[in-house]
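Complex record, two chains
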Amino acid sequence: MLRFWPILVLLLGGLFYWGMQRPNPNELKSVLVGKPAPSFSLPLLEPYRAQYGPEMGVRAGLGKPVLLNIWASWCIPCRTEAPLLERFHQQYRDQVLILGVNVQDSEAEALKFIQQYGLTFPSVYDGRGRIGIEYGYYGVPETFVIDRNGTVLARHAGELSEAQLRGYIEQVLR
Amino acid sequence: MRRRKAGWVGWLLLLALALAQPSPNTPPPDFSPEVFEIARELRCPVCQGESAAESNAGIAVEMRRIIAEQLAQGKSRAEIREFFVQRYGDWILYEPPARGLTLWVWLSPLVGLSLLGFGLWRYLAGVRARAQLTASDVSEEEIARLEAELQSPERQP
């Protein structure tokens, strides 16, 4: 047995190397990626009703890629993400629909948040977070990237950086 | 006799009181215990190491509500589990099914034990072989000489 020690060392080294190459275990992969995004329609928050109608959601025939952003007013990273989303909404509003889903929140707090950050991209209200569970969400903020045909391209758990957001928008417009 | 009877009644009362106490692990009355039994097998997505039955996070509460609704619709336990697996993957289950890479995790104790058994068997076989070898190595003549030496009177003190 001891004659084979170089082979054992190599095997062990190989095992360690393989372990290091594994995808990040903390990265949360969505089972939805590559599958059609669950469709839904929820009441819009009050400031958006005049422009978009009473309800909005992900459905067939939108003809636009969608960035579905799940947020809550009590969520700290959402506060840095909101101005960023607003900026990209101003820039890409004709090509990409940025749709917010307010979850696990009170409507009054959500409205205050929208006013505070001057958010013009539409947000629907899902007080219990049921649509979040439908999408298999882990927490807020979380963003789902949905292409023109309604297929989920990616899920981003946690706060988006500007580069990441730009990357997703470029991916979806390609 | 009467004292004894009173004692009995006292004991019975005590027993009744003990039984009347709610046991500490019963779920809050809003959902049936079955909801919590199913939720116990599911992970709470926003928590660390807590099941959907234990957590009070909004998402866990909503998961329990979904379970209760689906039970009311007459869905089976397996169907409800499947509902969550379809949305979250096997990750949501506290006891992942034994297939793929997970199968190796289930099998590794068995593999380890059998390797250990094999090693022990090899070692013991070696020891036995060596014992037999040393016993058969000594020639008849040597044994005779040894015995003679042991019995020779001049060696005795």
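Note: The longest helix of chain B spans residues 101-137.
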